[in-house]
Amino acid sequence: MAQVDAYGCPTVEITGGEPLLQPDVIPLMSQLLARRYRVLVETGGHRSIAGVPAGVIRIVDIKCPGSGEADRTDWTNLALLTPLDQVKFVLADRADYEFARDVVTREHLADRCGAVLLSPVHGELALKPLAEWMLADRLPVRLQVQMHKYIWDPQTRGV
């Protein structure tokens, strides 16, 4: 906690690998909330978010077919979403976009959470076609890029 306090930043996002696999992450989130931090947890979507403390913004990844991990998604997480939460799809191609579009529509995600994010795989899916598909379908989502891939070399880790 002293190291987090030393940064002087009011927001803490817990991510990297799968944070919900770490047994101490729930108590950590509770401590951060108690100290009035804005807390976000970004999860791969294959673990239940049920134990995440109220007040934590949960960013739940729904794996698309192009990831090779779509069968790992814990679909029960969708019923647990609150207006604070976000759902993210990482898209490799048009088929992933259509999968995401269908899930967003079928599950009424835009009405159930604070934001639905579509993020293209850097270097695989160009921004312009994705934006055009979103506009053509009038999809109530936001386009999200991996900003660190534009600031630093895309191969840089730990930023």
Please give a handful of descriptors for the protein shown.
159 residues, alpha/beta, pyruvate-formate lyase- activating enzyme, 6 strands, 18% strand
Can you tell me about this structure?
Strand 1, helix 2 (25-34) and strand 2 form a beta-alpha-beta unit. The chain has a six-stranded parallel β-sheet with strand order 1-2-3-4-5-6, covered by helices on one side. It is globular and about 45 Å long. It has helices at 2-7, 25-34, 94-106, 109-112, 127-137, 147-151; strands spanning 11-14, 38-43, 57-61, 86-91, 115-120, 142-143. The chain has 159 residues and is an alpha/beta fold. It has a single domain (2-151), classed as Alpha-Beta Horseshoe (pyruvate-formate lyase- activating enzyme), CATH 3.80.30.10.
Write a brief structural summary.
The chain is 31% helix and 18% strand. With 159 residues, the protein is an alpha/beta fold.
Write the layout of secondary structure elements.
Elements: H1 2-7, E1 11-14, H2 25-34, E2 38-43, E3 57-61, E4 86-91, H3 94-106, H4 109-112, E5 115-120, H5 127-137, E6 142-143, H6 147-151
